[in-house]
Specification:
The relative contact order is 0.14. Helix 7 packs antiparallel against helix 13 and helix 11 packs across helix 12. This protein has one domain: Amidase signature (AS) domain (Amidase signature (AS) enzymes, Alpha-Beta Complex). 36% of the residues lie in helices and 15% in strands.
Length: 463
Amino acid sequence: MSDPPWLGDTCSLVDAFRSGQRSPVEELEATLAAIDSSGLNAFCYIEAEPALERARTADVSLPFGGVPIGVKEREPVAGWPSTEASLVFADRIGTFDSTMTDRLRRGGANLIGQTTASEFGGLNVSVSKLHGTTGNPWDQTRTTGGSSAGSAAAVAGGLVSIATGSDGGGSIRIPAGFCGLVGMKGTAGRIPRGPHTVIGPLTVVGGCLTRSVRDVARWFDLTNGYDPRDPYSLPRIDGWERDLDSHDLSGLRVAIVPDLGRATIRPELDTLVRAAGEALVVDAGLNLTEVSKPDLPDTSVAWAMSNLAVLKMALGHFWPGCKDDLTMEMAFGMELASDHYDLEMAARIEADKMATNEAMADIFDEVDILICATNPDTAYPAGVTMNTQVGDVTVGGENNLALTGPFNIYGNPSIAVPIGLLGGLPISMQLAAGHHRDAILLDLARVVERERPWPLVAPAAPV
């Protein structure tokens, strides 16, 4: 029986390649075997033979030299399926690499295949008509969250050590929280989204699902920096991994608001998030303070309608004839927007976005760091898509978005960090800071990682 895939973080895998402890070919063969035998449904496309050839010639001196990486199926890769996780485009093939995947290739990454996602990234679940249901490695009857569903399942399930994600309302952080991983949404523009960048609604960022904070930092080193095909991308910053643990955290003002003032979360989770936040305050020498209850408007309509406009552009002449190919929720949203989206609604959406920005700015006038839950509960049943009552907590849909979405609209950085288990399933807290303070969040997450380390993979991962 062959060895399982690497169950540590990605940086340690690169170290193992460089020391000769393991080879890129051995790792890829183990990865492909594990994917083949996995019941998670985390991958929907594999490029095996070209990946093996790349493994044979991998330059392990590069940051991700020889590392097998899963690519969220909504991330463009030339020559691969370009389905948007939808039956509508089931036969379409990609014609270009995204800026992020191009930079990953240049950094030695071996892009081996696509991980499942929800259709057009429109739902924070692990279900699509095209590929079925992706299971959570901690309990396959539970959701991984979404839309970066397969990426989270692949990393937590021990298939690959890192995978791409994208986050327009929580699509990196929600699955990271449900699967016990690190998931960071950097400041908007940190990682370019081109080419062919869709500008509106200015909420989407790229990133990764991974097992450690330093993996996120190395990802930023490789993929951040201005690209002319994303006019809102930020100038390059070097030294993300080099500068980990070098920032003065003492005295930073922090507030702990588990429900972010508007979500309904499980009482036990509220208690655990508060406890984890208070432990971080002590460990990092922070200054715990109170903050006025966030007065955040319900932005679910603003988020949904803004994204549906982009969806209409993507569907083009296929709509409305493709309605039966879409998931029920996406079709309903398109019909609703088609019938009711008008100048008055557009004005109301812009007013909600402005109110969110003002409320978030007010928070970060009072504190440096805000701590809340990543998700309102542990992973719910995998078939749930819209808001559903489970016990005393509403799960799915808008209630998840209430904890993550405001940071997308405001564009500030936030990171999901594992803080333990509840009922045998991972729970997570979210650390948020003002714009451009990404490095501070990475250092705070490192404190949690160092003082209270988390399992890197689910118990059922290949061994």
